[in-house]
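Re: export button greyed out
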Amino acid sequence: MSSAARLVWLVAATLLLAACAGAPLRGTGDLGLVIERASGHVTLVSTTSRSAYARIGGLGDLSHASVVYSRDARYAYVFGRDGGLSKIDLLEARLVKRVIQSGNAIGGSISQDGRIVVAQNYTPGGIKAFDAETLELLAEVPAEYAPGQFSKVVGLADVPGNKFAYALFDGGEIRVTDFSDPKHPTTQRYPAGRQPYDGLVTPDGRHYLAGLFGEDGVALLDLWQPEKGSRRILDKYGKGEEKLPVFKMPHLRGWSLAAGRAWLPAIGRNEVLVVDASTWKETARVAVKGQPVFVMASPDGRQVWVNFAFPDNGWVQVIDTLSGQVVQTLQPGKAVLHMEFTPRGEAVWISARDDNRVLIYDTRNFRELGSLPAEAPSGIFFTSRAARIGF
Amino acid sequence: MGWSMSNSGIAGPAAAVLLAGATLAAAEPSPMRQKELIHMVRQDCGSCHGMTLRGGLGPALLPATLADKPVDGLVATIIGGRAGTAMPPWHRFLAEDEARWIVARLMEGFPQ
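Workaround output, generated via the alternate export path:
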């Protein structure tokens, strides 16, 4: 076939496909989904029209559900609390496949090459790797930290080389598992400290940080030089003071590296800790309204948005990263659980669980741009995550 | 609202209520308050114990998992927290008899 004939054939086939689908062709870069935690639904949304376009149910227990995207940003992988792993097609707005992969799960991540989806589990403690296409089990890596003892896994993040970094809550370790041979993974272990509660990887994929609950500090592993081992940063940031009761664990997943600094939630303190991202020394603290849960940098790094643990979960504060000051305090609704920036950050979507609403704010003037109904909304996940390391 | 109480012991008025609770039925929270408590357990306790109470970072709170645990110990854990674990004290938000009501409901299967 000549190249011209091949082109004609290709165009015809494409048109035919489009006609069969009955819908105009479209991309997915402005799509996303909102978890409705109480009813096992997700609502599919467009950040361009600022509206929902479909709703899918039957996804099980979605409390603490999280989502990663295929590298073409067409499929969402939803990790439910009950161990359910659901693959959703954003374009056809349907559930493609669903497996129950564990008894109690906490999230997941997708590999650099997009072929492997990995779930992190509390019960049985460990991680499991699945074929991203078929959700077929490829390998299982139990988080055994002492003979017969298995740890809950937290803070799973993809890192370059088809590796995944994660932390062991009960085992006090950071682990890096290499899935470059997907059915025969290999794992490296590093000490972390007492009760790591979550982890994050920096946007360049170089540093893995595990926040500690059982002691004041953060464990840091340089993935470019893992032979140097893990080390402690922000050691004793509480300075021996008694910490406040923690009514909800903070999350590090919405990492914040902004203006050359890392912005991290303090445990048991109404503070955001600021660390220089080249020396990893503390440079400042920002006093905030409550104990931070998510400390999220806008895509340009100019702002950091913070929400809070119960009972201060009706507030959201915005830190200007240039001045290091809180510049805005908002009350978007009752029980604010999550925030997500649009891909280039002109707006932020905020879930208010007990108001059954998702609110959309303009990040420049903090005005409400709109809202949409959702039943007990929690996580909001946009497809821009598909291209980010560590998700 | 509620009594502050140390993690290690129960003293003063709290002990009196515990004692009374053992012989008389503890005061039931009002229907409206019961609704709030159910919401609080499912949603806020649920951040660690799971919305279905099948466990998460914290242990499961199902009738089967609680069956062999002493009621007073469970009430004391809710009110005073548990040192060395992630369980915080809830006395700022719950009165003793409310915690006792929650424990009773958990042990029989928590309402939706």
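The mean pLDDT of chain A is 93. The button fix ships in the next patch.
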